[in-house]
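Treating backbone geometry as a discrete language has practical consequences that deserve illustration. The sequence in question and its structure tokens are set out directly beneath this paragraph.
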Amino acid sequence: MSVSRFICLCVLSTVSVITAPSLMQAEDWFEFRGPTGQGHSSQTSLPIAWSPTEHVLWNTKIPGVGWSSPIVVGEKVFVTTAVPKGDGKMPEQSLRVVCLDLESGKILWDKEIFQETKETVQRIHKKNSHASPTPISDGKVVYVHFGTFGTACLTLDGDVVWKTTALKYEMQHGNGGSPILVDDKLVVICDGKGSNFIAALDRKTGDIAWKVDRNVDGRKKFSFATPLLITVNGEEQIVAPGTDVISGHSPKDGKEIWHLNYTGYSVIPRPIYSHGLIFVTTSYDRPTLLAIRPDGKGDVTDTHLAWSNKNQIPHTPSLLVVGDELYTVSDKGIGQCFDAKTGKLHWKERVGGNYSASPLFADGKIYFQSEEGETTIIAPGTTYKEISRNHLKEPTLASYAVAGDTLLIRTKSQLYRIGK
């Protein structure tokens, strides 16, 4: 063998060793709406066709009821659920975490973390569950949140690291907002029937690191929002939507940086951040889509609203930005595409069905999933172009998770892994 050929083979071999793991490495799906919290996946070769029997790698019945979305940590999948106690006629609930093997779908462990007793149980909305907040992980442990009933940290094998019930408030229609991780803290929004606050728990101990009350004067104070961590001019801030207000807060102590007032309650969609703008909707009674510049100080209600729209805006599904376009799907199935910077409407189409799940962008496609269990896949762009429709024939309100080149979809009773 010539010297030059030997050197060439060595180089190619080295390149293969370096690049092969990155090609096989699946992205982390540690929280609600994925790695950025905004519904984007970098994975390719995702499925675009399936049914209850076709392209199903596995489907596993999940005990109880829960509308939390699945998360993926290595070769494990985590969801929360609530299982009625006894014969199910009484209101008591066992609040649980279920861990599944990603490859086989087998339940590895199923553990009770908290209980709702006859004395503590609270009524929920018919579309809600007792286990709606999505878990979150840092790859080493898993954090779960059940609203006022408790928050906990578990090892990946199900051992409890800590539990706390310190975040007490009276919920309205149940729990909803998912936690986020910010440095050494776990941050949640608690907007209840009578009190509204944002709290940060120490990730190692579960102790309250800070708690900031929100002054809400409206008759309907409750909301179910998930915060978003963003960076503005080199400084991190936690963006927290809620009843009648959205605000930015310092991760260090929760101190408010800015706020913008609006009229709205039962706020559900998680905000997204793109093109220097925060996009959020005000939920009930008539939702308004707001595009906000988050670089202000104090009350920015009259100064930092870039644009807004009140036509067919979602109460429940979060929004999605792909390139220069902002996509929405209303609870009643009206899809829209806006210019993200200006608010100009490019198209409006009746996608069909009813919607609670948040859309996903992956592999150059947008996935909308209806409450009836149908996924409509479209091509992003300023004209509406449908690619396919796929139905699991079972209700679903949970949002997608991505695991390698497969989708995880949670229905009312099962968790599906869909592949090509």
Remarks:
- The two ends are 43 Å apart (CA to CA).
- The chain has one helix and 34 strands.
- The longest helix spans residues 3-24.
